[in-house]
Amino acid sequence: MEPREYENEFFRSHGFKRQTCKNCHDVFWSQGPREICAEKPCTPYSFIGRSPFSRKFTVDEFREFYLNFFEKRGHTRIARYPVVPRWRDDVLFVQASIYDFQPWVTSGAIEPPANPLVMSQPSLRFNDIGEVGVSGRHLTGFEMLAHHAFNKPGKEIYFKEHTVELCHELLTSSLGVRAEDITYKEEVWEGGGDLGPSLSVGVSGMELATLVFMQYMREGEVVKPLPLTVVDTGYGLERFAWMSQGTNTIYETVFPDLLPKIPSEITPPEAAILADHARVFALILADGVVPSNVKEGYLARLLLRRIMRILEKHPGAISLHELFSLVIMHGSWNLKEIGANPKGFLDLVDVEEARFHETLERGRSHVRRLEERLRGEGKKIGVSELLELYDSMGLTPDVVVEELKEPVKIPDDFFTRVAKLHEKSETVEAATGDDAGPSGTVPLPPHTLPPTEVLYQKDPYTMMFSSTLLWVEWPWVLLDRTYFYPTGGGQITDTGRIEKDEVVEVARKGPFVLHRLGKDSGTQLKVGQKVDCSIDATRRRQLMQHHTATHILNGALREVFGPHIWQAGAYKGIEGARLDVTHYKSISDEELRQVERIANRIVSEDRPVKSYFSQRRDAEARFGFTLYQGGAVPGKEIRIVEIEGFDVEACGGTHCTHTSEVGLIKASSTERIQDGMVRVNFTAGDRALQMVQDQGAALRSLSQKLAVPPEQLPQALDSLLQRLREVDKASRSQAASDVRDLARKLLGSPETAFPVGGGKYVAVKAVLNKQSVSLKEIARELTNDPKVIAILASEEGNKGMLFIASGSPKVHSAVALLDEARKVWPARGGGSPSAAMAYGDSGESLLRAVESALSHARKSGTELISP
Has residue 416 been placed in a domain? Predict the structure, then answer.
């Protein structure tokens, strides 16, 4: 940035000079001459034990002090946003307060919730996770105190000068810092596509705040002015409190009540990690993330497994339950969501703890095998293998090293590297997982055409309407207005007719809704023609029932399990529907019945289902960010679907106007589709009624056949199955007896038993009317005696089979005998010295094969060794 970007009247009028640090060579502003900036490493920490502030603050006290300071100077206090930014799909976590306002406010698309505003925003950064507990100053989660102003042309609130003035007043007049001890270092800030000059505020060796002046936006390689300029400040709450107290590390200041309750056998660095990670994990869960192997859930699990590994090193010192109970009580964040459902929170912790121990048990043997394999290849386990073992199996590096014969040094930044594998700062794939989408390529009409007037969102009950044909690219046509719903949001397409032509698919392309005609349509449609359209009303009604039921079920799941339930995907079809939600374990049958009861209670209460458009800012202020259950929704104005007093979501689908129209919700099954995600399969309305009727008919039929009332069917079936098991057991016992009897008969008959090797062995030859499984059983019974060779054949129609087994395979090879038999009997087969089998024609050739095998077995003194 040019030097002029940092100049302002406040600096000029208060005697600030622009200087260059002789150590780091960065440019900074200060009152009076200085050779170095006031930040580490140029200036070491000088506040430990002697704070430059005029008074001490706890974390909670300084938060309130800061917010009050700016409220008195014309700022409106607003509540924190969730740390999981559901309103955008390009980042995993909020890392700074400005994330709350990107891209909608910073682009000028919508108004901010207040202007100017002040807030305290919890923020998460995993890039220095390996430094937590080690450096004495790093935290994974921190609160960013911030004041923001959004300046539009002709409506400027304030910009650089007043921002610096407010900061300087806070530090000097309110906190008692000497003006000459403060430096404002010139930097450039960039994030979310926005950028601008910034000033890093240093005192006594620590960067306390950053003052960013967002003026530009980057589009590819081009940097151009923003439509509005933004004051984006970040004051580190924990750092201010730390500097005020001057404790040895930041952890004593942030966790004054928590750290003393962690047993002394746990080292101070470990205790700091436990406190930091547990607090952040609780916050992530409160904002709707459960541990998994992907995205936000992966980083949540990373925190929890670091905690569990430390606790495992100190058995009996403190349990996971005890630690999290302390965090809920003494953490510096007010986690009302966790406090409202502590049992659900601790249940999740139990599940994760069990999985961790399973991972350790399974993983240790895997590590040993991997090391042996690599040693055989002249290699050994290194850092890349440590990363892979954690990423794929969740094995912490110290666990791996414990199992190695040749240990490897664990890099200090190991967990920072792990976090970078899954933490994305720019583009994150959309995570809604909706399974309904266009069936193929959809053409884009010319941009000169007007956008389609979408009417299905205003009135989902209109099934017949007229429209004008604007454009045709066979088989796709564009109407000026439509009630047809295009595939999207997990809901499949409407179908119907345009004049006599069948509409088989509807899809959105940019601002247009296009209709695909069936391949057998003999269309005579022409551009400019007025056309009559009709929608398949039965299909539309079913889709409305399934989509409304999805919202009801999602609300019921949150009521049963808690706020961590978040929609991760959905499908609304004709035959059935499914809803994927974040959850840490499988849903039991009783839990599913409970969810189903709540859902059908909402149906029976005939609650209004309102669909309307709202300014994004107003909707977020009124309902919060659970609006974005289906993922980030674009636009200044969003469509709200509100089930009165129960569920509110931003959604573009077609819905019933009262819950009673859903008719019935029947949850048929659940399944864990991946780690941290559960699928609920269900039907609603007419399809649910049909399913219940079909199931009822099946039960009545079964009841009649078993001659018991329907309610006694489980006991009757249990009794029947028990009898079948007894019959099967008796049958198998009889079959085994029959096999033994036949084997004895074959061995005792001179027509089937022949001496071999001078009488040392016996060859049994027989052609039986048996299936192959029986031949195997008879051969197995015969060759339990090592002196016996079994040569057994069977015929069924024109198919023949030969099975040869040997009790002494090293002396008489079954496969060698089979090879001799196949010389006179063309057949396919093979085997081992113990047993061999072949298939071919029945009749004379098979009999010759049997005799050939016997002949070779009977050769006196011959030992047939396996080839």
Answer: yes
